[in-house]
Amino acid sequence: MSPEISSSVPDVGAADRVHVFDTTLRDGEQSPGISLNTQEKLEIAQQLARLGVDVIEAGFPITSPGDFEAVESIARAVEGPVICALARTHKADIDAAWNAIRDSERPRIHTFISTSDIHITHQLQTTREDVKGQARAAVAMARSLCDEVEFSPMDATRAELEFTAEVCAIALAEGATVINIPDTVGYTTPDEYARYFARLLELVPGLGEIELSVHCHDDLGLAVANAYSGLLAGARQVECAVNGIGERAGNCSLEEIVMLLRTRRDEHGLDTALDTRELARTSRMITRFTGYAVQPNKAIVGRNAFAHEAGIHQDGVLKERSTYEIMDARDVGLESNSIVLGKHSGRHALRDALEQLGFQIDGNALNQAFKRFKAIADKKKQVTALDLEAIVSDQVRDGGAGYELAWFDVEASSRREPRAEVAVRMPDGGQALGVSGGDGPVNAIFGAIREAAGVESELRQYTVSAVTEGEDALGEVTVMLRAHGRLASGQGVATDILEASARAYVRALSNALEGAAVREAEGTIGDSASQPVTPGP
Amino acid sequence: MSPEISSSVPDVGAADRVHVFDTTLRDGEQSPGISLNTQEKLEIAQQLARLGVDVIEAGFPITSPGDFEAVESIARAVEGPVICALARTHKADIDAAWNAIRDSERPRIHTFISTSDIHITHQLQTTREDVKGQARAAVAMARSLCDEVEFSPMDATRAELEFTAEVCAIALAEGATVINIPDTVGYTTPDEYARYFARLLELVPGLGEIELSVHCHDDLGLAVANAYSGLLAGARQVECAVNGIGERAGNCSLEEIVMLLRTRRDEHGLDTALDTRELARTSRMITRFTGYAVQPNKAIVGRNAFAHEAGIHQDGVLKERSTYEIMDARDVGLESNSIVLGKHSGRHALRDALEQLGFQIDGNALNQAFKRFKAIADKKKQVTALDLEAIVSDQVRDGGAGYELAWFDVEASSRREPRAEVAVRMPDGGQALGVSGGDGPVNAIFGAIREAAGVESELRQYTVSAVTEGEDALGEVTVMLRAHGRLASGQGVATDILEASARAYVRALSNALEGAAVREAEGTIGDSASQPVTPGP
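Above: the input entities. Below: the structure tokens describing the complete assembly.
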């Protein structure tokens, strides 16, 4: 690494330091069709720690035993960032949140309740007085358990400002250490949000002494701009998600707000402490685990963000990089890796390469990864850092339990119906065969898997993306299906698109099976909550 | 259509009317790997006219005979919007632009030159005095040809403001009717951009009397917010592109700025005259023709923009729509179509359905579309509006010239190498066979097509997306390849992913063949330009 690049972790005064609160695992994970298991969430949290985020919102423990377990694992294993759990203002929620994070070195409880009349009337079906009482009791209880307590008046930007100020004053009096002002439905504008903060600071004495936070949704395309405006108005924590995922149009994109602060420090003097060279890898990991692709023209991490069409544009860039580039691609972790392995590379070389990529793999996991690597290196001339990432990630997702693809044969033609034959290893260790036609080879394979596994399942979504460019690129398939009464997703990686599809489908079936087990246990905790679970700020 | 929805075309005073300048066909088309032919550009322009944009920037005629021809066709055929062509400050550029648009009812020449020292020194390699002279001559010449002339000081936001003001004053004095202030590299912030406009209005007398315009790139995720800020500061034209495509991270997204203005009219009083119910369809057309997918969490037109995860979020929405939705999905053209055809639907029903979707198809084109429809309806229980759009679009792209897929057979297996056999109809009318193995069935098919066509070609990108959800969804494949010395892309639609892949590859080869013809002719015009072509504002 050159000294020029290592200077990318900056040095700003404490007053100008913006704290990054990542909610990829909470608000991001609530996006339709994303279903991460505990192992995947742990991998993501470790990567967020490498990236240097200040706070990880790890989940919403009351919502399911699976969510509880994931937050608990992260709290126990991940060092560095504050580990935060979300809770409504109910006692059961706060208990669950605390029990999940209590083993963290730096735990935080985040509790919320809506202050907008539209939410109070239609969703909570209660009164403003009751909201004040709930906020007071929740913050007091959370504070009795945990030193760090964050409070959010949900839907604040559509709420009466004076009432929101009253509720914030109560939270402050009860000892909240962070107050977050969510634009829950992505409705506000930069000017309006700045005015909101200014007026709130006038109305709530002492608010300026604790940490203020922004949480913005992108329904009108303004999430990053609104978050930025809130920071200029005095907030010093920004809530955001990798690739901007989250409910509906998603959250403020982590990589965009971080690079905006870094690139335009001349304008505002603020900065985060993130190691931005980890941004590209973090983005790829989230894409892979969620199946949510990033569009080519997405800022910072899109395929074209640093690309230029042929002709003079290239010419300009060659003449002087700054002609059309305001950021250096190396500073976001692109172009940083030159690892290339081939079919003659040994176990040792693979292990070294994986270590360079931040994966600590040994023993049986290394053996498994090496087997996959060899199979792929046989078909692909060069195995790059991006390929290795995909292979190892695929390995991580394979919990071992559930169904497994043994082999398949497919015939397809434009002149007759396709035919697929598939063998699936069952959870009990046995092997089952399935044969099916369909309206295409993928459809036929899925039919054959369903027949082999003997499970009713319905395909909901099917996406394919290429890991690297070129003729022998690895294909990554994400499948979302409904089986065992729930939605589940699965990924598969292979040079063969049909193989990747079959792997993804089988993996999704396995995840649905795990999920089904979780769902049966869920009833108990679900009942203890007095109402169905809200989406959160 | 309900009266509630038809109220979506609003009524604002002239002073508060924002004009939408769409640059999808110019800045958008410059994205890497997009190659639209004249027929496709014309389809897009017609759709933009239906959407109600005020100005269509149809292309950059000097850059190639193909671009010239597309702009000319649009200028002759598309009624309603102003048709604009881009030109550097060179005489040859302005001549080409004028010749391309002169048959339009409302032509506009858009000329530009950089005012930033970084561009003047490194790219133009000239002086500030020369820039002033070029701007003066270009605007004067354009104005002698055309009543509407737009001038852009490129990279203005990184340029010295006082010098930019001097150049704008010159353009104004020579009769420019619109002055556009581009944030060419996506560097500015909302506050900074607003200050820039305010100061420019002070320094250039008379600037407030003509139309001011914003043009923002999204490198830091602020394109929409910056454009909005410029409008609040007095601009009344917004340059933008559908799905936010364009150089690098792209342009201000048309659908986002339009829905921001519509939804928050309470805050600013501004609005456009667009029929927003055409937004969703326009977005799908651009995705399909460019192969640039929109991420699920993209604002307004992403798959999830109006979706909510199960649980109470749904509950909230059911109780009262406004709990979590600030826009009505019907107002952007989602959920608006209930067309469903099946395999027993006749030619007449198809024609009616297509008409409802805005496609006027008759004669041989209708026969072809009906044949494709029947083939797909045989495999798919229900053919929806989205399916029909995909089928007809696929039809439109098929120029008829070039290569065509006759048939294919593929065998794939996890236990041995795949094998593909393909027959391709050649441009000369003959049929050629190819056989190939590969590292997967797609790879094998592409190998077989290459062998059959006898053309050297290299795959650069391969993307797959589903048109609709469910087991029997239509798959849409986009292939980008290099052949005949140029990059070209092609799409294919089928229920069978291998068939869609084969169609896309053959289509891309045909486009490369057409492109090769264009390229040979290009040398002549290219030489008449005194330097290589710039990317534009």
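Note for the figure: Chain A touches chain B through 121 residues (CB under 8 Å).
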